[in-house]
Each structure stands twice: as structure tokens, then as C-alpha cells.
Amino acid sequence: MTISENRPTTAFIDLGNLACNLRSIRQFIGPQTKCLAVVKANAYGHGAVECSRRLSREGIDWFGVALPEEGIELRRAGIEEPILVLGGFWPGQEHLILEYRLVPVVWDAEQAALLDKASAIRRTVSEFHVKIDTGMGRIGVRHDNVSRLAERLRSLRHVKLSGLMTHFAAADDPEQNQFTQLQIARFDAAVAEFERHGHDPVCHDLANSPGAFAFPSSRRSMVRLGGVLYGLCRDVLPPNVDRPILKPVLSLRSRISHLKSVPAGETLGYGRTFETGRDSLIASVPIGYADGVPRSLSNKGHFLVGGEFAPIVGRISMDWTLIDVTDISGVETGSEVIVIGSSGANVIEAEDVARSTGTISYEITCRISGRVTREYTCENLR
Ligand SMILES: *Cc1c(COP(=O)(O)O)cnc(C)c1O
Fold it and tell me: Radius of gyration of the chain from Cα atoms?
């Protein structure tokens, strides 16, 4: 066994695969459309700074974050590309928006006025994008109510409306294609309304990952890509849509800390929810729900050891998970355990974990917590 100085629970992030995915996607959607990489929520758990640096080297056009704080983190790390703050800003944060050269998404006149005032103090003109709600029902000015906003924005002298965007509610579901088409039509009508009021926003973006792949007509000047960059696509893209090969970027691994023989008829873990039906070899793995392994995988999920599936037995606890390795040969203390990733001929993808816990892969990778070490690798690509 190799003694490591840290708990051997690590998320490996293959930046080569990240770069590869971006190259494949760009080739697929063509050079006329810019790509914004969505790196909110620590790049869906993959590490926002490291991923952004790699994407920057690949010539990414824009970055997208949810909060100003996330944009500030990228600027402090030296990221120079334009950064769109998808969730806008809270009153008071307009000064940070300007200081860190972020481009906020805005959906009402008061937000724009705050930005205008802060820009006037700095004697500058700052840019913002407007979000149009075409059917998501979340943030954004309603598509049938843009006139007043378009008009009020005309009176602000220190801000410029440089982009219009919307967000799809169900672009991943072929049965709801008509609704997505309706969202596109509503967006076009809203754009026309802004133009009628004398605005000339150069950036038009509608598509998230499923939109960019399933609705070529929605690509326009830019697409906003999250999931597909990280190779999370099997539960995000419609099943039969054309796509390039996308590789998973993240794998989550640990090592067996303790291995013991347990006779038949013993119970394991909190609540004693598992009873050994035979003499068993049980391994303790130093990863738990505080690291992001869903507790609902208790007595249900698997990890991979030596390329074989080892069932999770008993309740997953905060820091530990027990697996049954009785049927796997050659297991020892220190053996590698794959929580997400491949080993031998077998693989457990984030999508698999998501399916068995009733969620999507994004939630699985987002929830890998801060105490899990991230290690950045570049397996196949410089
Ligand atoms: C998160 C987000 C995206 C990215 O969605 P993916 O499905 O990961 O591509 C795009 N646009 C907005 C507004 C978002 O909030």
C-alpha cells in the first residue's frame, strides 16, 4: 500500500477531455457561432478557475457565471475573456460589476438604473444584456411586455444594451419541441421590439446545451454551454440528436481504508439496515454524503473495485461508505475505489448515479463538496 499524506478521496479532472469536448462541439456547431462556457457553481463541481484557464487557452469566447462573486473569482485568477453574470446582481453589487468588468444580465429598469448611476460616477459606459422570459417563467422580462423596458432603457446614458438572451425550459425533450419553437418565435418578436425602440444589441443567445444540439435555428450569435463541455450529456441531450463524441471530464475515486471479514448474520452501519447473508468481506471507503455521495444510494448503488461492481451495503454515512467486496479477488487495504468513472471494462457515470437517485448528472457533480481534493490531469491532449 502506498501511504498518501491526505485522505485518498479525490476528484480527478481531465482538462484534456474538457478541451477535446470544446473542440468537438465547435466543429459540430460551426465557426459562425460563439461559445460561452458556463462555469457557474465551481464549473458544475469541476473547478471553475482551472477549467476556465484551460478553456481560455482553447480560445473560448465568453464565460458565464451565476453570481458576481463567481465572476470576481475568475478575474482574480487572471481570466480576461468577457464574463456574463447570468443571475444578475443584487443592489450594491453594481460597483463590483464595474470594478471587475463583468457583464450583468438585467431584466428590469431599476437594475439598469443602478448600473447607469455607478457607471456615471466612474465616467464610463458599461454594457449589460437583457434576459427575456419566453416560457421559463423564471427571471427575465416577459416576452409580451418588453416595450416599456426597451423605452426606459433609452434614457440611460452610461449603459449600453449589448445583448439579448432567453433560456429554454424543455429543449432536451423532443415531445416538447413545439414549445421550444414557440420560445424561439417569442424571442424573435421581443428582439424586433427592442430594435424598434432604437436598440442594437449585437449578441443574441438562446441555446443551452440541449438547445445548441437539438435546435440549430437557435444558435444565432452565441450558445451557452455547460453540461456538454463536461461530457455530461446522456441525461441532458435528447436521445437521438446528432452529436460529436463527448468525454466525461470528472472521475471520483478513493481507496479502501479498512478491510475486514464479517461473519454471516451481522448488521452493518447506522440503523442496521443491512444484514450479511453470508460470511463477507466488507471494505470501509473514506467517502460519504458530506463529500457528495447521495445518501439515497444506501443499500442500492455500487462502486468499482478492480474493475468489478461492489455493492454499497448499509447506510452511507457522512464520511464513510461500506461496500461488499466478497466476490472480488485481489482486494486489499489501499485498493482503488471508483465512485464515478471507469475501471476495466466497467463504468459508473455521473448519469448512472443520477438515474438511480432520481436527479440529473449536474446535481451529482455540483454536490461533490469542497473537502474533496481536485486533481487536474491531462490524459490525452496537450
Ligand atoms: C446554467 C445555464 C446554462 C447552461 O446550461 P447547460 O444545460 O449546462 O448547457 C445556460 N444558460 C443559462 C441562463 C444557465 O443558467
Answer: 24
User: In the prediction, which pLDDT does 106 show?
Assistant: 98
Residue 40 designated active-site: yes
CA of 167 to the centre of ligand 1 (A): 8
Ligand 1 atom closest to 86 (CA): 13
Q: Which amino acid does the sequence have at 286?
A: P
pLDDT of 381 above 90: no
Query: What global pTM score does this model have?
Result: 0.96
CB distance 163 to 224 below 8 Å: no
Ligand 1 lined by 208 (C-beta under 6 Å): yes
Tell whether the model's pLDDT for residue 119 goes beyond 80: yes
With cut-offs at 50, 70 and 90, classify the pLDDT of residue 91: very high
The secondary structure element, H or E, covering residue 101 is: none
Measured by CA distance, the residue closest to atom 10 of ligand 1 is 208
Decide if 270 is catalytic. Answer: yes
Q: What gap in Å lies between CA 218 and CA 268, rounded to an integer?
A: 53
Determine the pLDDT at residue 95: 97
Distance 225 CA to ligand 1 centre (A): 6
- pLDDT digit string (tens) for 214-223? 999 999 999 9
Q: Are 115 and 125 in contact (CB under 8 A)?
A: no
Q: How many CA atoms lie within 13 A of 172 on its CB side?
A: 14
What is the model's pLDDT at position 5? 78
Q: Parallel, antiparallel, or unpaired for β 159-165 and 126-133?
A: parallel
209 lines ligand 1 (CB under 6 A): yes
The span from the CA of 87 to the CA of 66, in Å, is 5
* Phi, psi angle pair for 144, to nearest 5°: -95, 15
H/E stretch holding 97 reads: helix 94-99
134 lines ligand 1 (CB under 6 A): no
Between vectors from CA 355 to CA 213 and to CA 239, what angle results, nearest 5°? 25
What is the DSSP code (8-state) at residue 314? S
Q: Is the CB of 227 under 6 A from ligand 1?
A: yes
What atom in ligand 1 is closest to the CA of residue 131? 13
Interatomic CA distance for residues 243 and 29, integer angstroms: 10
